[in-house]
Amino acid sequence: MASTVNRDGESPLYLAAERGSVEAVQMLLGCAMVEYGGPRGQTALHAAVCRSYGNRHEISISIKDQQLCQLHFFKNICRIKSLLTVVRSLDIAKVLLEKMSKLNLETDNSLSAPIHYAASLGDVNMVRLLLQEDATIAHLLDNRGLSALHTAASQD
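RE: above sequence
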């Protein structure tokens, strides 16, 4: 069962990482054959990196086609819940890297590795964790020719 994917291309390991279940990730990694993929060529590590920012939404306020400002907010306004999400994401990433360190090098359909997502989200702790596992990932380029450093520098 751990080696199957649903109609959206999500494996059980991907879903467990996306939903923040450290226990389920650990259990699934104990299986003999485990699929780790997700949609758009992403892996369970991509899901772990992105999950703490998955509830982020943007609203643009415009008057007569002139954008005045852009607001960023999270569904989970509660700061404690947000902090727990970040900690669980790091825990999941650590577990995944311990068992499947190659996930750190795997890119999605846009050639973005997990470090590109962590850098674009400004998640310094996740970037640090990923680089500690393999510093060579700092040189990976996405389909636009950008490294994680370029990605981080181009964010607002």
